[in-house]
Backbone:
């Protein structure tokens, strides 16, 4: 069983200091993080949309990758050099314009050097997934 090493407030403080290019505004909020799971909410912006009025793939991939990083930080603590080694996304349905995005991440396996997890992406308050992501992170020697 994974024990939480960092809670949402500590993760936010770490990200603002160490990764401000990804976490400097107020568009993404960490709603929960407990060492096994996390929930992030990204506030809607027209910048998320691609032609045709659907939420873009890069927006969804970026949020999923960020959610995986947050859940990993909650499990291992402030390890800035943990990096994505693989990310696979399945787009399931259109993300609705005007709706915030929600990312629900969970660790599937946490080893000494690799972590594997999955992220479900949702639109607004719907329980219908708009994308499913699996990701692997490499954890440096500390």
Residues:
């Amino acid at each position: 069983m994974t024990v939480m090493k960092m809670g949402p407030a500590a993760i936010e403080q770490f990200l603002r200091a160490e990764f401000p290019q990804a976490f400097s505004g107020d568009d993404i909020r960490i709603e929960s993080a407990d060492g096994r799971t996390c929930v992030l909410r990204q506030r809607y912006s027209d910048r998320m949309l691609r032609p045709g009025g659907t939420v873009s793939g890069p927006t969804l991939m970026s949020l999923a990758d960020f959610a995986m990083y947050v859940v990993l930080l909650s499990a291992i603590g402030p390890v800035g050099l943990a990096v994505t080694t693989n990310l696979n996304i399945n787009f399931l349905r259109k993300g609705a314009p005007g709706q915030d995005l929600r990312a629900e991440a969970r660790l599937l396996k946490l080893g000494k050097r690799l972590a594997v997890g999955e992220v479900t992406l949702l639109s607004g308050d719907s329980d219908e997934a708009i994308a499913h992501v699996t990701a692997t992170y490499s954890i440096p020697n500390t």
Notes: The CA atoms of residues 49 and 60 lie 11 Å apart. The mean pLDDT is 94. DSSP finds two helices and eight strands in the chain.
